[in-house]
Amino acid sequence: MATDETFPGLAPAAAAPRRWRLVAFAGRAVGAVLTIGALSVLSRETARTRPPEPAPASVTTTDLGIAFVPAMTLAPRPAVPAETAGRLRLDLAGEAARIEPRHGPQEQTLGRGDFAAIEETHLRLTLTRDAPEPQPGLFVTLARRAAEGPNLSVIRTGQRGRIATKFGAVETLEATLSGAGRRICTGFVTLEAQPARIDGWLCAPLGQPPEPRTLACTLDALTLDARADPATSAVFADAEGRRDAACDPIRALSSGEPEGRTGSIVPRRTPPARKPQHP
User: Fold this and answer.
1) Distances (CA, A) of 271 to 21, 87, 214, 257
2) pLDDT grade, residue 74 (50/70/90)?
């Protein structure tokens, strides 16, 4: 289309709507920019005037001002002061029991005998105060205890059982432990001593599993030689009223076993009466 010569320099009439569309688009763009700027200024002013919200109880702020949120919040178990923790004692003659280093403020481990000495009785038990629920099974507990302390492993398990003790019912599991040697032992865990928990194992001499009666009388001899926390003290005080009179605390759970009675309790022998001497 030719340019109108009457008004030189003017574009054709069809170009006018295109210019208006460009002007309208530019106007909308400028309006959007102004709106975004106004909202940004308003947001900054609101953030300055709003008081800071307190952090949740489970959020910990480091020295660098970085908030650390734990993956899960667990109520910590109260630590037992050393003077009120009590101390395990085994009222058995023969080799004295030893208290092993603790793996936590709520646990105390007692050991007796050497696992590597096949001719000796070997005992290792752990008292857990305020034991959390639910508890792992006996096999899991036995495997963990064996690995964390004396560096043993459970290579075979056998018959399960249950015996009655002064602490109530105790679950048992025959287990072959391997480390500095290999021995067939009886793992055990209390089932009715809440909130305390006693678990461990007992190995008889000569590689044979101990008799159930031996384990029952061993636990019967377990006491505290000082007052512990109220809950644990109550468990042991209640258990003392159920001691088995047949388990003489003076007799020895010793390495010297009567012939044919491996892992049995050695009965207390009464000395023969003296014959009266006549002048």
Assistant:
1) 123, 34, 24, 19
2) very low
Computed over its alpha carbons, how large is the radius of gyration of the chain? 39
Pick from 245, 195, 203: which is nearest to 220 by CA? 245
Q: What is the three-class DSSP state of 124?
A: strand
The pLDDT tens digits of the residues spanning 103-132 come to 566 889 999 999 999 999 999 999 998 877
Determine the straight-line distance between the first and last CA of the chain, rounded to whole angstroms.
164
- How many other CB atoms sit within 10 Å of the CB of residue 268? 10
45-49, 96-100, 164-168, 265-269: least confident range: 265-269
- Which DSSP helix (H) or strand (E) runs through 67? strand 67-68
Q: Which residues contact 60 (CB under 8 A, 6 or more apart)?
A: 67, 68, 69, 70
pLDDT of residue 248: 73
Average pLDDT score over the chain: 74
The CA-based diameter of the chain, rounded to the nearest angstrom, is 171
175 contact partners, CB below 8 Å, separation of at least 6: 139, 142, 154, 156, 157, 158, 184, 185, 186, 187, 201
- Measure the CA angle with vertex 125, ends 184 and 182; round to 5°: 20
- Separation CA 172–CA 139 (nearest Å): 10
Q: Report which residue type is found at 202.
A: L
- Cα torsion through 131, 137, 143, 145, rounded to 10: 10
**Helix (H/G/I), strand (E/B), else coil: 256:** coil
- At which residue do the structure tokens 């003392």 appear? 240
β-pair partners for 215: none
253 or 159, which is more confident:
159
Residue 92 pLDDT: 62
